[in-house]
Give the backbone structure.
Amino acid sequence: MHQCINAARQIAGIASIIICAGLVIGVLNQTGLGIKVTSVILNLAGGQLWLALLLTALACLILGMEVPTTAAYVICVSVAGPALQELGMAPLHAHLFVFWYALLSTITPPVCGTVFIAAGMAQTSWVPVAGQAMRLGLGLYIVPLAFVANTALLYPGDNLLLALAAFAKVAVGLWLMSRGLIGGQIAFWQRPLLFILGLGGIFAFGISA
């Protein structure tokens, strides 16, 4: 009986999130607000690719919080895809970039449905779980940008050695960033240094196919 009550409580919490998301989906479908918001954000980029990428990532995270991943991807890529391609991105990069960030909405507050499920299973507050999920998933937020800075990652068939070099560079950079953010017994002053070194290692001297 006790387990049934706990299961019902967890289901009730998850159901409330789904209901709220459903309401927002209805509003987006009826008003077309999702496309309008995405268009405005991209216009703010002013023709700058990296600014457009950051704003597109933000749009994907926001839309993905309220709609299923597929819907968020379709909404974002229908507007952001052509715009990013006009700014010089290959179609594969544009679609992968948008889809990746739409997926990350599952661990990004305030909705973060998977975080609520994990918090319910652990019987704890969702806030620390969301923080820990984002810390552990730090690399996931960086990888799409790393694809853009190191295009060889997506074309191993063209030059395998360049692809492996880009992979190694990004992997070391992510390790340094993770070490600086969630590392164990290291001095406090070393943390920001490792984070900056890792970030610079990923984006400096990009390896292109």
